[in-house]
């Protein structure tokens, strides 16, 4: 009780310092509790998937390339527990709402609300009866989309389809707005049929298994292709739960880890502040401590008084921080929903809250108790002499009468040496928070501003202009025409094919020239040069347990060939293999590239390139499908021709017809004739623009994270400085009064004290930012390597990032220090003499 009484007395006497220290503890407990109480992101994803019976494997079949026999074939498999197939619309283009600033790139699975599905069910909130429109995943609600607003789809030919947002829904997967693969939306039956008429339908097949390791989906694709279609290109997309679970939760896990680490850093600052305040408080109040000992208080009682004081502060501030965590959780959950598409609700968790509060309180109490050991070692006589055993043997490092230079600079130097423990503490704290701030800025630059990380994830070549060709197109002639454009630096030709290795299906990316690649980077070895060489992504290499120099056998529609592994790329999420054109022709002699990628000169836009293609080749197939072509007013059959051509292209694409021709005869004369061969270009699009849209979401998430770190960092610096400056002013109150009586102005004394703190801020900010600059990306690389992602490619952070973090810290420290030294105004020589 005696120690508790001392603690309460100390709290009343030092209330301002108490509040400052409590703020730091409150912030640390708030964010620590917020992240821990939310739980692991992967668990939330799996929990929602279990509730909606999420798929273990999904396969997207090309139009009219799926047969019900495959579902029957799968159901007969030993480990398959459920199969569900449905028609969906695969939409690529952009989406936006009049309430949003700009369109975002869209890669959507549009599903019919009336379809019965036992796997990957959709949980619609408050479905609207007898209404026409769309239901969006909850991630769109986090983006600001609202019920009743318009949702506009814009296809590649700039044709728009406007529908009402009827509500939102939970989905087991593909609900994230940042998903680099697909996002699911649900349409009412009339909307679905309208869109399917324009874009056709494909079949999405989902199936669940009781053992993911016992039955991989890839071998089923090979069996199906061989038995029913003899064409491996019947499959457009396929993945298992391990694939898309990692893709959906990777960045959310990174952000959660960063916030947990940051809260740990804040708590470390609190520990340093506790140690500093205890030791400084002991030196400042030696007379009081000696008096207490003389009155009969034991050293243990005095030490426990300090311990109880800080434990009370921590206990109360941790409770307040926990309450604040419930208020901050919706913003944190919004970030997670954007990235994962998982519905996360704010729930109470009293037992976990109390556990965190007790741990924080006990840790602070232990550190404080260890910091009070100096009280036990000094007898009363020594304490009453100010802690001196006999006399002060310290030398005067700065003798005013012999020192040269400005008196203000000399006094600053004197203070710097006298308060070296304080300055070291400030330097350490500033270094810690500067490291954290620079760390956040570098992540924002790497994930939000630059596209380096995303490129490595995609493992695809990202160019300003891409042309998809029809199978009848003369690629050599089209390449020659494109190369004739002086605003194009270079082009590459890419084929997207399918191969199997050990009865497992993989993507084959076929390039005409690997030397021209800019986005895809090799991690180990080199890209293939000869026709018997192949490069693999790190993910494929791990699945096959192969390395550079090993030989693998590729199979394509029954034709086999051996290849030597020449290199490995860094992506841990792609099923990509890389071959030369001659290399793939060993499997398929009639191979022809399907895509031309163009690298544009600076200042030459994608829109200008699209106009160039239109002028050279006329309408593309995607433009014909949009129905927005201009008619030739000099030709009365122009409108009819456009209508017929668009219908032919739609039939060709939706029913896998190779080619179609027509002729219109009047009185025996052919007045109109054409065919699908008149439109060699399927589509023109920009990969770079698609990436920019995805980056907007990452920029939002990591921008919010960087802003959060910046704000909290500045709050911590202000709180620390308020404690340090107040304690310094109290200690030097007599000296400042004497200096004022000697003619020093308040402004001069404030500048002296401010400039005394500035060296610690400069050293700490420079040190912390430099360490973060050199270690952040290697740390992230190491983090990725733990999940099998080696050879990660990244660009070094900009030096501006380093400088901006350090300058913000230094300038803010100077401004706050000068502001906090305003309490010197209250000190006067008259007051000191009177007292």
Give a concise summary.
With 835 residues, the protein is α+β, with helices and mostly antiparallel strands.
What do these coordinates show?
44% of the residues are buried. 53% of the residues lie in helices and 19% in strands. Among the domains are: 1-52 and 248-391, no CATH class; 57-211, no CATH class; 464-600, Barwin-like endoglucanases, CATH 2.40.40.20; 621-678, no CATH class. Helix 15 packs across helix 25 (746-785) and helix 15 (420-449) crosses helix 26. It is elongated, with a radius of gyration of 35 Å. The strands form 3 sheets. Strands 11, 12, 13, 14, 15, 16, 17, 18, 19 and 22 form a 10-stranded mixed β-sheet that branches. The chain has a 6-stranded mixed β-barrel with strand order 2-3-8-5-7-6. It has a two-stranded antiparallel sheet with strand order 20-21. The two termini are 34 Å apart. It is built from 27 helices and 22 strands. It is an alpha+beta fold and 835 residues long. Strand 12 and strand 13 form a beta hairpin.
